[in-house]
Design brief:
It holds the Pfam family DUF1275. By secondary structure, this protein is mostly helical. It has helices at about 15-35, 45-60, 60-65, 70-90, 95-110, 120-140, 155-170, 170-200, 210-230; strands spanning about 140, 145. It is built from 9 helices and 2 strands, in the order ααααααββααα. The chain has a two-stranded antiparallel ribbon with strand order 1-2.
Length: about 230
C-alpha cells in the first residue's frame, strides 16, 4: 500500500482513482450518446437540460421544452434508489452495494442497446438519466476528496483550486489532488469523444461501449477481493 500523499493508483475500491476514471469515462460517454443519438438531451448534465428547457420555453417551442422534463424526474428517482441501496445493502449477487450498483448499470445499459429505433428517444433518455443518477449518487468520493463521475463542472473547479494552492503554497498534497482531478477530467473527455464517435458510427448500440467499461470496473473489484483472501497451501 502506498504511503499517505501518493496517488493510490493500485487500490481498487469505491473511492479509488482507477474506478473514478472509469466511471467518469462512462459519464462522458453517456452524455454524448444521448445528446448526439437520442434527441439532443443530456443524460447526466441536468443543469444543461434545465437551461435548454428554459430556452425552448422562451422561444415558444413548448413541445420541445417538455422533452427535457422526463430526464429531470428520472434523475431525481435515481437518487432515491441509490440511497435505498446504500442503506439496505443486502444483495445476493455481491457482498457490497458498490458492486451491486455496477451490476445494475451493466444490465440496464445492455438492455438499452437492444431497444429498437421505433421506441421514442424520451424512453431511452429517461432510462439512461436514471442510471446515471444512481452512479453519481453512489460514487462521490475520490480517495480523500469529493468528486462527481457524471459531470465535470465541480471537478474542474476543484482541480483549479488545488492547482492554485499548490502553486502559491508549494503544497505537495494539493498538487497530488490536482493531478487526480486532472485524470478524472481527462477520462470524462475521452468518454465523451468515444461516445460521440461510436454513436455516429454504429448508432444505438454504441451504449454497449459504456457496458464494456463497467464490466472492466466490476472485474477490478472481483480481482481485488481475491487478493484479500488468505493464501492456502
Amino acid at each position: 500500500m502506498f504511503m499517505k500523499g501518493k496517488i493510490h493508483l493500485h487500490q481498487v475500491t469505491s473511492e479509488s482513482l482507477r474506478l473514478g476514471a472509469l466511471l467518469s469515462l462512462v459519464g462522458g460517454f453517456l452524455d454524448t450518446y444521448t445528446f448526439v443519438g437520442r434527441g439532443g438531451v443530456f443524460a447526466n448534465a441536468q443543469t444543461g437540460n434545465i437551461v435548454l428547457l428554459a430556452v425552448k420555453v422562451i422561444q415558444g417551442h413548448w413541445i420541445q421544452a417538455l422533452s427535457y422534463i422526463p430526464p429531470l424526474i428520472a434523475f431525481s428517482l435515481g437518487v432515491f434508489v441509490a440511497e435505498g441501496i446504500k442503506r439496505k445493502s443486502t444483495h445476493r449477487l455481491t457482498p457490497d452495494w458498490t458492486r451491486a450498483i455496477l451490476l445494475l448499470e451493466i444490465a440496464i445499459f445492455f438492455i438499452v442497446g437492444l431497444i429498437p429505433q421505433g421506441v421514442p428517444n424520451t424512453v431511452v433518455v429517461v432510462i439512461v438519466s436514471f442510471v446515471a443518477s444512481v452512479q453519481m449518487t453512489s460514487f462521490r468520493k475520490l480517495i480523500d476528496v469529493p468528486y462527481t463521475s457524471t459531470v465535470s463542472t465541480g471537478n474542474l473547479r476543484s482541480a483549479i483550486e488545488a492547482v492554485y494552492v499548490a502553486v502559491t503554497t508549494k503544497d505537495t498534497n494539493a498538487a497530488i489532488r490536482a493531478m487526480r482531478y486532472g485524470v478524472i477530467l481527462a477520462a470524462f473527455l475521452v468518454g465523451a469523444l468515444l461516445g460521440g464517435f461510436l454513436t455516429l458510427t454504429i448508432g444505438d448500440k454504441a451504449v454497449w461501449g459504456a457496458v464494456v467499461a463497467l464490466i472492466f470496473s466490476f472485474i477490478l473489484f472481483t480481482e481485488e477481493e481475491k487478493w484479500k483472501l488468505p493464501l492456502r497451501h
